[in-house]
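Human: I wish I could look at a protein chain and see how it folds. This is the protein in question:
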Amino acid sequence: MINNDVLRSIRYMLDLGDNRVIDIIKLADADFNIEQADVQAFLKKDEDEGYAECSDAVLARFLNGLVFYYRGKDESLPPRPVEKRITNNVVLKKLRVAFELKDLDMHQVFEDAGFPVSRPELSALFRQPDHKNFRLCGDQLLRNFLKGLTLRMRGT
């Protein structure tokens, strides 16, 4: 999925304002420079004037910040390196960690979206890329996960 769509979807799901998005990014990296105008440009439709593409660096920090926002930050541990490349699998994994979703919760989220996923299919999404049973998370799968998670967070 396009990073802007992921950011837009999560922002809607959690009903976050522009300043809250910036705060969450700063949780992951206080030195990262981002302005409110940048966030507003990321949230515009691609045909709108002033649209800007959300980079992997921004989305990675936002997802890491979400984990810290919901789970807390352990200051005794060294900071984790920021992912250079954000894939649908990384987005799925970060959201799973941030919202403390177990396998049953994940299956329920997909069910709620009307897109049931089998156990082996779900576990294949979280394997290491070099594992023989690893499976790439497609756009449709991530879109349905975000839809189901939105239903869970905001209600119907």
Q: What stands out?
A: Helices lie at 3-14, 18-28, 36-43, 56-71, 88-98, 103-112, 119-125, 139-154. The two ends are 24 Å apart (CA to CA). The chain has a mean pLDDT of 94.
